[in-house]
């Protein structure tokens, strides 16, 4: 049975997807921003997707995790950025504009504000207009993905904070933005196709990292990122899911629960083949 797979339309996903057809994948791909794919996962509109790690925690009883794969950062991530007209320490009582695209990073931002900076009264909300307009007027905004990379290139605010870098400074751990989340139902009903896809994803990632230069040449965003810029960006991401990543992930979920962003800490259940 053919799989329906979500695809985050950000450059950071290219190492998982670019060589997927050459690695034998012939299922259906559905594009979207993370919040859209989170909803499709929860409702059964896709069988599996790289999606917000926060979404796994929110509905973990419905899901399994693909082992060994993630979209993480072990230092600066460069595409999850708080843009601000003022230093972060002075933001209490202020607003931060959100895009509505994210789940993990929004909650990471709330943890950073409360846990690391002891700022108890910062209101985070999606404004009526584009967040870029809020930034142009000197307000604060959280951007993720390609929009964050573009605004950083344009130096869109006097203060720009990289959330993965702040996380590392305060915890010493990697941060896991996205996990490969599989619906339990698909694991049961499409077991063979799921097993094949796990191998194909590792194949695509391996081909990508065999020559990031070749991947950059074939990526349309080279027009504004430059080939060298793309290679640097992929090199600063981590696509693995090792012990340190899992420690960072558990700590994130623990802090989400402590600050009432989650009702409970999820158990981590992995797909076993
Ligand atoms: C590193 C990133 O992580 C993304 C952030 C996500 C979120 O905040 O929910 C979800 C998926 C990731 O692609 C990014 O897109 O810049």
Automatic annotation (TrEMBL):
Organism placement in taxonomy: Bacteria, Pseudomonadati, Thermodesulfobacteriota, Desulfuromonadia, Desulfuromonadales
Gene3D superfamilies according to UniProt: Periplasmic binding protein-like II
Catalytic activity: chorismate = 3-[(1-carboxyvinyl)-oxy]benzoate + H2O
One Pfam family hit: VitK2_biosynth
Protein name per its UniProtKB record: Chorismate dehydratase
Purpose: Catalyzes the dehydration of chorismate into 3-[(1-carboxyvinyl)oxy]benzoate, a step in the biosynthesis of menaquinone (MK, vitamin K2).
Superkingdom of origin: Bacteria
Assigned keywords, A-Z: Lyase, Menaquinone biosynthesis
Family in the record: Belongs to the MqnA/MqnD family. MqnA subfamily.
InterPro entries linked: Menaquinone_biosynth, MqnA
Signal peptide: none
GO molecular function, one term: hydro-lyase activity
Pathway: Quinol/quinone metabolism; menaquinone biosynthesis
């Amino acid at each position: 049975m053919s799989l329906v797979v979500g695809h985050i339309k950000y450059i950071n996903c290219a190492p998982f997807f670019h060589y997927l057809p050459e690695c034998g994948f012939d299922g259906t791909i559905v594009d979207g921003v993370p919040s859209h794919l989170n909803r499709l996962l929860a409702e059964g509109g896709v069988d599996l997707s790289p999606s917000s790690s926060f979404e796994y925690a929110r509905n973990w009883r419905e899901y399994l995790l693909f082992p060994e794969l993630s979209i993480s950062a072990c230092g600066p991530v460069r595409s999850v950025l708080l843009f601000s007209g003022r230093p972060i320490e002075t933001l209490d009582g202020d607003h931060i504009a959100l895009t509505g695209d994210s789940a993990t990073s929004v909650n990471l931002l709330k943890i950073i504000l409360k846990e690391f900076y002891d700022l108890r009264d910062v209101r985070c909300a999606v404004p009526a207009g584009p967040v870029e307009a809020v930034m142009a007027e000197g307000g604060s905004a959280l951007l993720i993905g390609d929009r964050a990379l573009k605004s950083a290139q344009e130096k869109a605010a006097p203060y720009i904070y990289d959330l993965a870098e702040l996380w590392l400074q305060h915890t010493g751990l990697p941060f896991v933005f996205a996990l490969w989340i599989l619906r339990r139902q698909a694991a049961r009903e499409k077991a063979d196709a799921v097993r094949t896809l796990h191998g194909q994803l590792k194949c695509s990632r391996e081909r990508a990292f065999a020559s990031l230069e070749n991947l950059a040449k074939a990526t349309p965003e080279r027009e504004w990122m430059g080939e060298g810029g793309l290679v640097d960006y992929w090199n600063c991401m981590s696509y693995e899911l090792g012990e340190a990543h899992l420690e960072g992930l558990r700590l994130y979920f623990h802090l989400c629960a402590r600050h009432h962003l989650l009702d409970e800490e999820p158990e981590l259940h992995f797909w076993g083949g």
